[in-house]
# Entry
Amino acid sequence: MGLILLRYGELALKGKNRVAFLRQLRRNIRACLKENGLTGEVTSAGQRVYVETEQVEEALEPLSRVFGLASLSPVVEVERDIDAIVREAVRQAETAGVRPGVSFRVDARRADKTFPHISPEINRLAGGAIHEALHGDVDLSKAADVTIGVDVRAERAMIYRNVLRGPGGLPLGTEGRVVALISGGIDSPVAAWMMMKRGCAVIPLHFSQDEEDTAKALDNIEFLSHYSYGWRLRPTVLSHAEAVAPTLQRLYDLGEERWACIFCKRTLLQRAAALCEELGAHGIVMGDALGQVASQTLPNMEVISYGITKPILRPLIGMDKAEIVDLAQRIGTFETSTRSEHSCRFLPARPLTRGTVERMLEISRRLDEMEGQGT
Amino acid sequence: MGLILLRYGELALKGKNRVAFLRQLRRNIRACLKENGLTGEVTSAGQRVYVETEQVEEALEPLSRVFGLASLSPVVEVERDIDAIVREAVRQAETAGVRPGVSFRVDARRADKTFPHISPEINRLAGGAIHEALHGDVDLSKAADVTIGVDVRAERAMIYRNVLRGPGGLPLGTEGRVVALISGGIDSPVAAWMMMKRGCAVIPLHFSQDEEDTAKALDNIEFLSHYSYGWRLRPTVLSHAEAVAPTLQRLYDLGEERWACIFCKRTLLQRAAALCEELGAHGIVMGDALGQVASQTLPNMEVISYGITKPILRPLIGMDKAEIVDLAQRIGTFETSTRSEHSCRFLPARPLTRGTVERMLEISRRLDEMEGQGT
# Structure
């Protein structure tokens, strides 16, 4: 039976919410194992969570996608005996490639204070043995190439290396639900991922314009599901044409087609707000960035979000395109998002870059009149 | 006379806006030089901007804070002569510490195609000379410890090393104005900085609760001003008590003090929206994060922002606390923000964590009635 040690970061700060957060984290870890066809026992002790499993190697990568986890290490347990500890430390240092020119350190803790060797002594004994056996360079700083961890507990001692980074954030589900607009593009899946990272359960909403774009959006959601342990992503797919075509047709009839993108986005946000009400979500997530396309301006953002009753969460608003692309590549959505160019059939020749709320309200009134007259 | 080569990133993509963006970037670079007591000529050619100055060393650090710049290199100009180029390349490699065990590469370009040596030949000649003189290890990949750049232009050749990273983003001022709520805390200055990075001109708004907290907020704004070249940060300071005390007093009278934080923040946002109207800004920047304090929940965010007419920009909403702290340290605001703990005198014993819009509107009506009765 193998063991994986999981460390959590931010939720350690959470005071009295800590118990509920930790419960959700363990639940999500169990969901992660199950969805990846793995079996294992999840327990926690002090500031750490452990997974006991026969499938350590297979479990590491999926577990590194559970939000709330800061880092992961596979662990070997040995007897509470200094010789056994030193032997296993040397074995792991060798596997880790310690040799002349490769620096290492031993980082021992002694949770069980009855163990006859104090931590610096364990460091010295194990470090000395590794140096003698493998001729690696001792480096007491954290910059060492290889760190061998030793934890002496009441019953057994744990030896580990290979600290994998977790994704950070908060356990998914602890911060409530949001509706996320998801397209086939680069930005919106990254925005949804960032809110998942901060503990939100995401309800994906896609407005379908054509089959290929919708296939891309659904693929993006599939990639996101590899991070959504404990909450199933159930996409709502609505027809884009049904949602916006009548409004846009009237806009063209009015000769106000430059407003098409603004009225389109307003309509989508109104639909998203209604879905929030229906499903108990408290915010709408968008992939809005600034200055990436001509119509992504602050004045337009003001007009688009005017009067929308749910908070609009734009986690990418302060990010550079290069940073967004890096995240898309990490999540896996970048290739999907770039495999074909999507162009909107309603896109006017010169979309407005500086709309005003007054004009928007005026045009809205005229659109309402036209609708009233059945045109 | 010395020369600095400045590369810009994202704005290269901007199509027909590129000219205006580049003009703003040059203007901001000039403001940076001036505000740091430096003199220099700013010119651009192709995809690059140059600063010609007697004060290369002094100018590098301030220029590395101009948004829109991807990287900076001090440059030495030599004759368009292969021997002069090779000599200077060896000299710079020596200064950069190339020696046995330190890898290097030469990265030559030939803008002037009449120069008799093609780029790979310049790389080979200069690289060979560096290896012979300093015995450094040739590494043709970008992972080399030291890269010596060579640019052969029509009149002179440029040799450079030491690529400093710029802050990225878009030239400040190109994306319009926003009002940013700034406190003495960690988050709000980072949020403002991120929107500055995306090209926004920030109007800082601080609600003063006590002298010490206001001193911290003004210090934070002072740090931000070292990034706000081309736009002077002029803080608006309003009395927090004057803005919120009457409302909060009535809330306590109603026995609804658990709503204090929500009504306080609503009042501040309404003031911020009014300031936007007055000063032509199109959004309100807040340091909101999720789950960091008990009242920072999605349901509360919904209630707080309900009916606020300007878009609320929350660039930190998808970030971990550790990421926010890293940025605060980089900007310089972290120490200010943590030098004392600020506690609000209106803070109720158990602030609400899940308000609803209906309840908020109901309480609002009762507060309005009390105000009408002059209580």
